[in-house]
Amino acid sequence: MNTEQETGEKPNISIKNLDITYNYENDSEEVKAARDINLDIKNGEIVSLVGESGSGKSTIGSSILNLLPKDTLTRGKIQLDGKNLLELPENDIREIRGKDISKIFQDPMGRLNPLMTVEQHFIELLNEHTDFGKEKAIEKSIDALNDVGIPPNRFEDYPHEFSGGMRQRIMIALALVLNPRILIADEATTSLDVVVQSQILNLLRDVTEKYNTSILNITHNLGVVAEISDRVVVLYGGKVVEKGSAEEIFHKPKHPYTKGLINSVIGLDTEELEWVEGTPPDLVNPPSGCPFHPRCPQVMEKCKKQFPEQTGFNDSHKTWCHLYES
Amino acid sequence: MNEKRNIKLWVKNLKKYYPTIENPLKKLIKGQEYVKAVDDISFEIKKGEVFGLVGESGSGKTTVGENLLMLQKPTEGQLYYEINEEIKKEILEAEKNGNKEKINKLNKKHSLRKRKNLRKLRKDIQMIFQDPSAALNPSMTVFESILHPAKIHKIGDTKEERKQKVYNMMEEVGLTPVERFKDKYPRDLSGGERQRVIIARAMILEPTFLVADEPVAMLDMSIRSKILNLLMKLKEEFGLTILFITHDLATAKLICNRIGIMYLGKIMELGKTKEIFENPKHPYTKSLMRAIPRADPRERERDKNLPEGEIPDPIDMPQGCRYHPRCLEATSKCGWGPRDLKEHIENNLLKIYDEEEIEEMEFNFKEDKENNKLEIHDKKEICNYLEKKKKEDTPLMNAIKETNKNQNKLTIKFKKPKEPKRKETETRAACFYN
């Protein structure tokens, strides 16, 4: 089933046949949040996971660093350096968090410790993962802050003394100070104003270029996706329904859901309101066959019975839709 | 009579200041400080139009909305509701002549702040909130939520009639089949459905004026348009006037007849939507338009030319034009002062000193707001840097009136700041350029 092409370059991280089920074997109803996800991210590549709330995008992001609740069932593989992250013991995952893979979130204030200065945040992180002396640690931190445009005299300030955009810059500096190979950005610019959002997106693109970091960008905002992604993966109801380069997804979308999603974006050149009819799927009892079939304007009989096979248009552009099966 | 009242709402010199809580001693010394959330704004909304108030977070747009509904009491200013040009003229005239008695009389008759029967008016002015889950009572079913205001305002004569009205309204907003939705609780609904309940709850009172505060910001992209479409449909059907509060210029462009762009409690630009988008005047408006992310990777390399930094602290508002520190088109007369210079030096420390030096340094800047000057002590390097920098033709440096070097102290004095005003009829943007 998994036929992610081998284009020579080895992926940085590789997700294979990932299934995630919440409330597994406890009293509540099982929620099938992600089903059979396959995804490779190459070095220095920015890949965006797009979908509505409940599509499974954040769940996938959290599974990589093992940040899901205890009674969650994860099956499949998330491979980094030949290790399956899903099977690593907690101690080993701790080693990886913040060092090989780091994550930034929507709300930076909620992630920074209000009782610690910026300096203390850096020192704590560097002590955990390196044996730098204090001097080297400070030097490293100031370099990282410089990269994100925070002046060095703010080093001893507390989080509340910064504005929202500055806090997000500090989070990015913290996430990048150890030169991780992968940065997971979960709605990292969603709560910021457009101008600041645009600044942060530029910043993310610059630093990844500089350090060859890969980004897994998780968002529902298609504008943000178009601004920074190399490749885009579209999720619906816990399934990947289409993936391709940013150009392919925005200019040659194939899956009816992708088309609907792109048409419903309200941009400066929008003249008429368009939307996708219906409501998001119930993940306790996901729709049979293709999860999008109850909302799909081009639904066919077999869509209700069977999830479609992959159709590839070229090496990068693929969709899972019966319309394109030969 | 109402037909002739073609001005639905005239917001006149509205101010809303929040006192900052500080210790009494400091208050004595410095005086009470305020967050000027809304700082003297005026605009009017014509009957039947959609007026958009657009701004970043912290611009005061939501505060304006809440003041209109008297959910908060304005600090100053009046909100004249359902008036016409004649009444407006009368008010302006009375104000010009200093006729306090007449102003009071007119205010009592027309201003929301002074009118007695506010509760009746509340039925006429309804609000839709951003977060549909927070605005619904989790222990009320859809039916109960919509019925509740109808009961309070005695809509319909009998129980049966009220019930029918609720059902009709549910159909109107697309909560169909009614049977399936009426007994559901908010937690059983999707975000879009919850927002429909909120819209139905507002519309059941048959309002004529709707304040919609970010009604789609929390919804998924794929259904935002559908909710907006519903609002527009209701507007046509019920002849609504809408104040649409949003941070999203693109949405405002699509549905508003006129928009006002707010920044730090002030309206920076106001005009017909079409005119503003075809020919934005204020540098802030231009920046906002450039910054909107485009859902097209081909536009990625466009010239964005972003302003620096973020919306500043409203307690300590920049002097002069409040946008000047971030403005890309600022000139020397836009209000530069000691704080801007201090910030400039701080941001360029790495150019002046080595990293190690900075760590051990204490900086003695003394800001004198009253006289608009900055004192710097004991820092030869900074003096030298400024000497060099002063020769450059930047607005900040050009705004310096005089520099005094006295032993170890450098005093830099700036020109007196002025704030650009937007005169209601003559100019669209509050900017010295226009």
UniProtKB/TrEMBL annotation, chain A:
Q: Name one GO molecular function term.
A: ATP hydrolysis activity
InterPro entries linked to this entry: AAA+_ATPase, ABC_Ni/Peptide_Import, ABC_transporter-like_ATP-bd, ABC_transporter-like_CS, Oligopep_ABC_C, P-loop_NTPase
Its membrane topology, per UniProt? Peripheral membrane protein
Give its localization.
Cell membrane
Naming one, the record's GO cellular component terms include: plasma membrane
Which UniProt keywords are given for this protein, alphabetically ordered?
A: ATP-binding, Cell membrane, Membrane, Nucleotide-binding, Transport
Q: Which SUPFAM superfamilies match?
A: P-loop containing nucleoside triphosphate hydrolases
What GO biological process, any one, is recorded here? peptide transport
The signal sequence is: none
The record's section on CDD domains has: ABC_NikE_OppD_transporters
ABC transporter domain location is 15-262
Task: Give the protein name, as stated in the record.
Answer: ABC-type dipeptide/oligopeptide/nickel transport system, ATPase component
Automatic annotation (TrEMBL), chain B:
**GO terms (BP aspect):** peptide transport; transmembrane transport
Family annotation (Pfam families):
ABC_tran (PF00005), oligo_HPY (PF08352)
Output compositional bias ranges, type Basic and acidic residues: 295-307
Q: Care to name a GO molecular-function term for this sequence?
A: ATP hydrolysis activity
Q: Which UniProt keywords apply?
A: ATP-binding, Nucleotide-binding, Transport
Record region (Disordered): 295-315
UniProt KW Aminoacyl-tRNA synthetase keyword: no
Question: Does this entry carry the keyword Phosphoprotein?
Answer: no
Q: Which residues form the ABC transporter domain?
A: 9-289
What name does UniProt use for this protein?
Answer: ABC-type oligopeptide transport system, ATPase component
- Per the UniProt entry, what species is this protein from, by scientific name? Methanohalarchaeum thermophilum
